[in-house]
Amino acid sequence: MSQVSDRSGAPIKVLVPKLPTASAIAPYLARIDASRIYSNYGPLSREFSASLSKLTGAAGVTLTCNGTAAIELALRAKSCSKGGICIMPAFTFIASTHAVCNAGLTPFLVEVDPDTLMVTPEIAEAALQQLDTLPAAVLVVSAFGAPPDFDDWMAFEVKHGIPVVFDAAAAVTSVFDRVGAQPVCVSLHATKVLGIGEGGAILSADADFTESTTAMTGFGFLGSERLSAIRGGNYRISEYAAAVGLAALEALPTRLDRLRLLIDAYATRLKNKEARLQPGAGDEWVTMTLNVVLPEKSVASTLDKLAAAGVEWRRWWGLGCHRHPAFADVPRTDLSATNSLAKCVIGLPFHEDLSEADIDRVVACLP
């Protein structure tokens, strides 16, 4: 936390991203200068991929230009681009829905569990009863960095024969040794715990799948021949992005410690409040977008108090994908629970510049 103890009256920002400094990146830039390799799976990119494998415990890593592309490619690889329905939560960031459509699939929006804020196998199974044919895939979205229940979703896939893909955009530090054959897509955006500016990755224990998705990031070239064996595009990261990633990994242990202290500071102050954090936040996983769930009756008054106190807040996922004009016509189940829940999930100020006094000021506004 910041050492500044008194900023009374100054606005408190909701998020202040922090990437590695120029001096931290400089040694990696020198390596680029020496190799004169700038893209196309260069040495820094390969090293960063191997480091992500070690961090997450995933046997295979496909680096992508952003997290949305990771979801799109994973869905394309799993559904074989045959089209069809993809069951997914309405309560997620709109990037998830764009990725589903870009993969040639039609979103079918469903509710989420009000406690975990994630779709469950039971919710997906209920949605199956409303469909005439089996969906091509299910997209399970990690809520703000919380790890999904990988075992239950593997059982779901085995039972129904429907591929499951995880949109774990903010959960790259929450999935260690949990990644199996079902692809786990993460974001490396500047707003994430491990950020490189723009980037993403697909994690998987399936070596053939990783080979295919990696080829898809480079125009579908497989093997040493420059023949496009499968359909893909240019979804790679540059050596410069990998340089930022390697520097960010060096600083990650210290950053995680600081973020856990921040979450604990909030959790301690919220013990006697009605506002609640997500289950496991700070203990089991960390995030850069810390949310509270407010009682519905208190939302309007709380937002007024935050505004009066000069405290920024954010609905990181908005009010649901179905509320966006671009997706107003996609099929869905009844979303009355999402309509109630989404307005209650409020992103609080959360970054390393916060002081104890700042957190006191924020929490004083909460019910």
UniProtKB/TrEMBL annotation:
It comes from the Bacteria. PANTHER family: PROTEIN RV3402C (PTHR30244:SF9), TRANSAMINASE (PTHR30244). Belongs to the DegT/DnrJ/EryC1 family. The active site is at K192. Gene3D superfamilies: Type I PLP-dependent aspartate aminotransferase-like (Major domain). Keywords: Aminotransferase, Pyridoxal phosphate, Transferase. The keyword Cell division does not apply. This is DegT/DnrJ/EryC1/StrS family aminotransferase. One of its GO terms (biological process) is polysaccharide biosynthetic process. The modification N6-(pyridoxal phosphate)lysine is found at K192. It comes from Microvirga aerilata. The lineage of its organism: Bacteria, Pseudomonadati, Pseudomonadota, Alphaproteobacteria, Hyphomicrobiales. Pfam families: DegT_DnrJ_EryC1 (PF01041). GO terms for molecular function: pyridoxal phosphate binding; transaminase activity.
